[in-house]
Hints:
Elements: E1 44-49, H1 52-60, H2 63-68, E2 71-78, E3 83-94, E4 105-109, E5 124-128, H3 138-148, E6 156-163, E7 166-175, H4 179-185, E8 193-196, E9 215-216, E10 219-220, E11 222-224, H5 234-245, H6 251-256, H7 261-274, H8 280-283, E12 287-292, E13 297-302, H9 332-338, H10 341-358, H11 361-380, H12 393-397, H13 412-424, E14 435-441, E15 448-456, E16 462-469, E17 474-478, E18 494-500, E19 507-516, E20 521-532, E21 540-546, E22 562-568, E23 574-575, E24 579-582, E25 591-592, E26 597-598, E27 603-608, E28 618-619, E29 628-636, E30 641-650, E31 658-661, E32 669-672, E33 701-702, E34 709-712, E35 717-722, E36 728-735, E37 737-739, E38 746-752, E39 757-762
Parallel strand pairs: 1-6, 27-28
Antiparallel strand pairs: 1-2, 2-3, 3-4, 4-5, 5-7, 6-7, 8-11, 8-12, 9-10, 12-13, 14-15, 15-18, 16-17, 16-19, 19-20, 21-22, 21-31, 22-27, 23-26, 24-25, 24-29, 29-30, 31-32, 33-34, 34-37, 35-36, 35-38, 38-39
Helix pairs in contact: 7-10
Amino acid sequence: MKSPHMPPAVRSIALVFLWGMTSLLTAQTDLPAFGPVFLQDEVAILEITMDSDSAEAMLFGDVDYASSNPFPATIDYQSTALDTIIETVAVRLRGNTSLFAPKKSFKVDLNAFIPGQKFADLEKLNLNANQNDPSLLRAALSWSILRRMGLAGSRTSMVKLLLNGEYMGVYVNTEHMDEEFVEEYYDKDGGNFYKCLWPATLDYIGPYPEEYKFEVNGRRAYELKTNTEADDYTDIAEFIGILNNASETDFTCDIEEVFNVPDFLKVMALDVVSANWDGYAGNKNNFYLYHNPQTGLFDYIAYDLDNTWGIDWIDGDWESRDPYAWSTEYRPLYDRLMEVEEYRSWYTYYLRKVVQEYAHPDSVSAFLDPRIAALTNAVATDDYYPLTFGFTPADFEVSMEEAWGQHVEYGILPWLDSRTNSLNGQLDPETPVLILHELEDNAPVLDSLRVRAIVDAGSDDIEVTCWIDAGSGPQAYTMFDDGEHGDRKSGDGTWGVKVDIPYNWVTVDYQVQATSAAGLERWLPCDPKTVTVGLTPSNLVINELMSANANNVSDAFGEFDDWAELYNAGGSAVSLGGKFLTDNLSNPGKYALPEGDLAAGDWAFYWLDNDPEQGELHAPFTLSSSGDELALTQWDEASGAWVILDFMPFGFSEQDISLGRLPDGEDYWVWFATPTADYSNNYAVVFDVDGPDARLQARQFGPNPTSGCVRWTGQASDGAVLNRMGQPVVQFASAKGICLTQHPAGLYSVVLRDGSRFQLIKVD
């Protein structure tokens, strides 16, 4: 339903946004497409409809109440890409000083009243008035440059906002930073995500995580936005401790173990060029830290970028400020990095890159010109635009070229000209650089180890090698940037290698070496990293599991959920503490087993129901009846790596049929027609898949390990050979044996039609 109150000047205007493309300063974020909510070639219309009393209270009532209490509303989004109405959303005011401005900013929360409700995969929208910026576009320009640099940053678009039919003016639709943002931008989304606001200096307070939960003005300076139930600040306390206390000798190695140094320097380069004085280095304010599980590093993410490109509230002379002494106060993250000659050279390289490419006047004009033209009529009819500072539509039209005065000291392009001229006389001489960072792998893993890292040497040729030591000395494996070796896209600066894992590897050490044509060499990490690439024998094993529980056994809440049973096949008790279950090896610590000992020959039972609130025996994941995997893992302090104690991939499961070992603890898996949850499998009835006359007989299997063929006793059977990831590599019919002569060494599973399963080790 279109609004009958919309004036003609507010109708959507098509844009042709010519935004100059340059090579990315690659980072390991996955930049999502703009999508229908963040249109780059059109100004969409967003109408909010709510009770008139609610609108009155939100716009003219108590700002504390209006900014912290959601008002029920309906939104109507209209564009050529998407035309939809979403009811029962929440709207409130957002911002700080803007709360008292005549032109308010708003937050739209899609799932405040209806859990899980989204708008094009988004849970929240930020509608920013940017009322202190006559161009309305400074923040959007900065976000766009960050995106072109390959860095995580909010997507933006321009929208015309209506509230109960009244035209509220032009707004910058800005992507909200929350757990949804992390999911969109990172391969792994389970890490701690901190919003850091004044006075977030990253100064050392003490060794205890609780010390970093201090509050200012009723909120934490380091506010955890994900994993809030755990509220565990151990990681940020350790990071801040290393940042401030690592010795000068150890600093580079130590900080690169916990922090993504190059990406921070990229953001700082843009801060210095655009004069973002309200960020970390300038005002200990407005940034996020994400502890990325993919790399184990904290990533720095910029935030709130409207006080830029010539806007100055504090007379800071930012256009001439020394880029190597950006703040007049000590900031450990900035100042300690500037003390390292190598990091300073990286920073200088990024500054030149920003000036010459990303913030070049031609590139900036290509972003701004079409937007100014497309928004001119919409701004001219925006009655709220002049109310705060007296901006006129003419001020908007010339905002690229002319200063407005007072806090707007420059037009955007004159600012850029002045700042660039200053930097050209301040930057260190240009020197070769070799930047190796964001090392990551897919361990723990059982089939092939993938290692990748980002390497940048400017225009110099580079060679990248992964050195892997499985116990007999380091072996060299060439890494590639061709899109075919576990790296990302060909030529994007991410180098990778995939190494097939021999059957006898359990853990390996590795390092990556990069060399450049300029004669530079760099290693990462400083000391070899230990990772798990195979099974570690254990008396504690996965003994039985069910992924399609319809009527078999219910929990205390009357629910029929997935479950798993462990068994102690050893002769003495084993501790369950420090051990985990997971359905995804890339997240090996999903469910920590409750503390306690399991006696020899005893069983332990757990619900895999994604209902951890129901008690400590309920895991935060479920199994898929169409096929899944279950692993038993442990963190090994000595090696600093995850250990895989047991691993079971499985295929389709019929209802109320379990998969288990027969007898308990043995490497012989069958489907049970009478599941034995938390009890011995030895007396279970095996599921009959071939009819009443084809009863499964006990089978013998061997030789194991084998360099060629294996055979089994009993009836001939159809079946398949699976690799470590549960993928079939061989399928056979009516066989009593199979040959793997042409297949690489490693761990396989042989699965027969009657449910029999054998783990097989293939040797060369």
